[in-house]
Design a protein that fits this description.
By secondary structure, the protein is an all-alpha fold. It has four helices and no strands.
């Protein structure tokens, strides 16, 4: 999750790295959600997944806006 804060503060994290937090390898957020047993914990992971996905979307819009200005 440090990637998310670093992106928010400095915008120096690649979108691919942010996206991999959601679903790459065995230590991603979706994997952690699947391991949760309590419904409350699953809902919390849903919020985390949605937050990271929104950050990825905003990052891509930021990149595209800068690309189109070139």
């Amino acid at each position: 999750m440090n990637y998310c804060w670093e992106y928010i503060e400095k915008k120096n994290v690649r979108g691919d790295d942010l996206y991999e937090l959601i679903g790459a390898e065995d230590d991603n957020i979706v994997y952690l959600q699947a391991e949760a047993e309590e419904e409350k914990d699953i809902r919390i992971w849903d919020c985390v997944i949605d937050s990271v996905a929104l950050l990825v979307e905003r990052h891509m819009k930021y990149i595209m806006n800068n690309y189109l200005k070139l």
